[in-house]
Design brief:
mainly alpha; single chain
């Protein structure tokens, strides 16, 4: 929104993190639904299905956190820069 090109990298990092986190969430919900619909399935199988995508949940959460902290730091820097420069009067 500030017109800086680094914002595209921040947005891309956040979207990738969000997609990975949602992939893990959907895998977890799918495992729980398959447990409910298929009573022959054991809890160990559900846990194995859920842990198969645990890397995506962890990586996605870390990427979202990094992108959020990065955008917070760049927002603070932009606010500080805007206070140093006086407004241009014409």
């Amino acid at each position: 929104m500030a017109g800086r090109k680094i914002g595209y990298a921040q947005a891309t990092l956040m979207v990738v993190g969000f997609v990975l986190t949602m992939m893990y969430l959907l895998a977890t919900i799918g495992s729980m639904l398959s447990l409910l619909s298929n009573m022959n399935m054991s809890e160990a199988q559900v846990e194995a299905d859920r842990h198969r995508y645990a890397w995506a949940g962890l990586t996605g959460s870390v990427l979202c956190l990094v992108a959020w902290c990065w955008s917070l730091a760049s927002s603070i820097a932009m606010v500080r820069d805007s206070q140093k420069e006086p407004p241009i009067l014409r």
